[in-house]
Design goal:
The chain is α+β, with helices and mostly antiparallel strands and 379 residues long. The protein folds into 3 domains: 269 residues, 3-Layer(aba) Sandwich (Cytidine Deaminase, domain 2); 44 residues; 37 residues, no CATH class. The protein has 14 helices and 12 strands. The strands form 5 sheets. A 3-stranded antiparallel beta sheet has the order 5-4-9. The protein has a 3-stranded antiparallel beta sheet with strand order 6-7-8, with no helix packed on it. β1 and β2 form a beta hairpin. The N terminus is likely disordered.
């Protein structure tokens, strides 16, 4: 039973309610993969550490959490003017850059469908002015109480974010495990200096017992790590099978597994290195908008709406993420957009210069750009 205890010891506990965090007393089924000493959950979640070992998962995480974390988030009043009465979002955690705090938050929403902040300071009218991100595995919800590192926390001291999407580590666990197993199999082939094969006793030689066979195999493995071939003695004969690693076509299977991960994460397979169709310049420009509309917007809405609730901001104030920098394209397209938007009031000169990361115009520059009065012609 030692192997079973080892498997149970690897099980991770989910810490929230409704499948979002640690639940206790839940029976988790196991299955053993033939030929592999690794045990995997059958239909259960996969650990984040194991998932991030898959490059496609890591790339999806960076694409979603990394992209959203660097976008500016502002507080607006009822007139849609930027106005932050508490200064909360200017620097959420005084010891950590906002990009890190929000990256960890979006990552938790991506993997777990839930994220947590713990309020560390209150200010104007008892609204939070500082908070720290708390990893999901440090939070437990029991009988309506929230515990952080085993200690109870008051309701007004925690901010819980919930994603409308299901947790990737649960619902994409099968695809992620497939990638892990294929990668391990490919590594096994890459580590072998000869095609797949087996050893058999030479004609007339006596068969060996299991312990003797294992000793010879260990010597073979050790010898071929130093040279391309190892010596097995006169008792055995090496025989090659009819197929090798290239004929198994693991590359195609691994590409399909990456495609499944792309579907689960909601990202374009092309962003994960899987070519599915030909691209033109025009539809390449549309990819960012598609990523925003069908993937990023869901996580943004979860954060915006939670930070706009009355326990975080006063009534009438809302949090808003700005996508201006993300959607800006090449210089020519940006200038054409400004030229169209400025006459109808969508952009001002000050706003355009802010978006282009340029300083405000000096009085002399404003005078030079001001329209000159038309000269009258004397008759």
């Amino acid at each position: 039973m030692g192997w079973l205890q080892g498997l149970l010891g690897r099980a991770e506990v989910d810490f929230s309610q409704n499948g979002h965090g640690p639940q206790f007393g839940v029976e988790v089924p196991f299955e053993i993969v033939q030929g592999d000493r690794l045990a995997a959950f059958s239909g259960g979640r996969i650990s984040r550490r194991d998932a991030l070992e898959v490059p496609a998962v890591l790339r999806s995480r960076n694409l979603i959490a990394g992209t959203l974390a660097r976008l500016p988030i502002h507080i607006r009043d009822r007139f849609r003017e930027e106005n932050d009465p508490t200064g909360f979002l200017a620097q959420v955690d005084p010891d950590v850059a906002n990009v890190v705090t929000f990256a960890n938050t979006y990552e938790d929403l991506f993997f777990e469908s839930v994220a947590w902040w713990k309020v560390t300071a209150f200010g104007w009218k008892s609204y939070p002015i500082n908070a720290v991100h708390v990893p999901v595995n440090q939070v437990m919800v029991s009988a309506g109480r929230v515990y952080v590192d085993g200690m109870p926390v008051a309701d007004d001291e925690v901010i819980r974010f919930d994603s409308p999407n299901p947790p990737l580590l649960v619902h994409a666990a099968r695809a992620i495990r497939t990638c892990l197993l294929l990668d391990k199999t490919a590594a096994l082939y890459a580590d072998s200096p000869m095609p797949l094969g087996h050893f058999s006793p030479r004609e007339g030689a006596a068969d060996l017992d299991e312990e003797q066979i294992q000793v010879l195999l260990d010597k073979w493995e050790q010898a071929r790590k130093q040279r391309a071939w190892g010596y097995v003695g006169a008792a055995w004969e090496a025989k090659k099978l009819q197929f090798d690693a290239e004929q198994i076509q693991l590359a195609e299977q691994r590409q399909h597994a990456v495609l499944e991960i792309a579907r689960a994460a909601g990202v374009d397979p092309e962003d994960l290195g899987v070519s599915t169709t030909s691209r033109t310049y025009q539809n390449s420009e549309q990819r960012r908008q598609d990523l925003l509309d069908f993937t990023l917007a869901t996580y943004v809405a979860a954060v915006e709406q939670r930070l706009s609730m009355k326990d975080v901001l006063p009534r009438g104030y809302t949090a808003k993420v700005s996508f201006d920098g993300f959607l800006r394209s090449d210089t020519k397209t940006r200038m054409q957009t400004y030229a169209i938007g400025k006459p109808i009031g969508a952009y001002t000169t000050e706003r355009i210069r802010e978006l282009e990361d340029e300083p405000p115009l000096t009085p002399q520059e404003q005078a030079e750009l001001a329209p000159q009065p038309m000269e009258t012609i004397d008759e």
